[in-house]
Amino acid sequence: MTLVSPAKAGTETASAPPRRRTARRATGLVVSLGVLLAIAAASIAIGAKPIPLDQVWHGLFHYSGSDTDVVIRDVRLPRTILGLLVGVGLGLAGAVIQALTRNPLADPGLLGLNAGASAAVVSAISFLGVTSLTGYVWFAFLGTAVVSVLVYALGGSRSATPVRLALAGMAVYAALYGYVNAVELLDTAALDKMRFWTVGSLASANMTVVRQVSPFLLVGVVLAVLLGRSLNAVALGDDTARALGSNLNRTRALSMIAVTLLCGAATAACGPIAFVGLIVPHLVRALTGPDMRWILPYAAVLSPVLLLGADVIGRLVTRPAELQVGVVTTFLGGPLFIYLVRRRRMAQL
């Protein structure tokens, strides 16, 4: 009979639960990736004209120039890729903002980033005559970047706190949307051109837009993932974070840069889309707990699941027309958010 020392037995018992939690989280992430692949396939196959999966495969890997292949390669594939990228950007931006502000209700709109993009786009349309989506991208990104710097400065810069950042963001949000509404009322042509963009849509996706926003999203994703451990310290409170050796000013500045890149590129590509960056981190936190090192990858996978799923639903409910994805996410996100905040367990996270 082999004897095990009490100290060794206690060590094995203590280490078993963390290993099981890690295994469950890893398994859940793999399952989530499988769901994402299924949703992506549905996004390519489902539309005004349903396309069987064998023809989808043919259009992707054995392109022959037929009408079906053109629809798959030139219309639905760019739309699906852009949906994946935008979903990742919005999910990570929402998770970072919630950790940065220690506010589970925070999303990119709380810091005024969507308002900055909208103000820049309406200015470009009304005063500079910009009419193309590829033109909107750069102005929307510029507006998001300018607002992020402004909010960080108004929030105290090096002495910024979560409350100051949230208050500064809401003040900027109110001012900019007042400006946007004024311009649209005075310039009906700008209103007509803005209407489609502001509702949030993937319908105008093309590979040019994908190529334009991909570098910004890639840098933002890498930066957000690298900030996971530092954001865990921020969530414990300023005093505790400093005691653990965390540089709060650097973490907040880098977090604002990551959010600007992610939210700016996503909003520039398809307009402001509500609830994705708000709902998904809530769901993820229930699965993984408060550890940002797991929240971030889960949010990066499940956010495009929600976005692409909403886009597919929008194509089905009004076929052969379609309902824009921003409208669908609002319909889905509103009741779901009410359900989440009413759950006692979620309110405690």
Automatic annotation (TrEMBL):
PANTHER family: FE(3+) DICITRATE TRANSPORT SYSTEM PERMEASE PROTEIN FECC-RELATED, FERRIC ENTEROBACTIN TRANSPORT SYSTEM PERMEASE PROTEIN. One of its GO terms (biological process) is siderophore-iron import into cell. Pfam families: FecCD. GO terms for molecular function: transmembrane transporter activity. It is found in: Cell membrane. The keyword Ion transport does not apply. One of its GO terms (cellular component) is plasma membrane. This is ABC-type transporter, integral membrane subunit. Residues 1-21 are annotated as: Disordered. Belongs to the binding-protein-dependent transport system permease family. FecCD subfamily. Gene3D superfamilies: ABC transporter involved in vitamin B12 uptake, BtuC. The chain crosses the membrane at residues 29-48, 81-100, 112-130, 136-155, 162-182, 217-236, 256-283, 295-317, 323-341. InterPro entries: ABC_BtuC-like, ABC_transptr_permease_BtuC. Signal peptide: none annotated. The lineage of its organism: Bacteria, Bacillati, Actinomycetota, Actinomycetes, Kitasatosporales. Its main location: membrane.
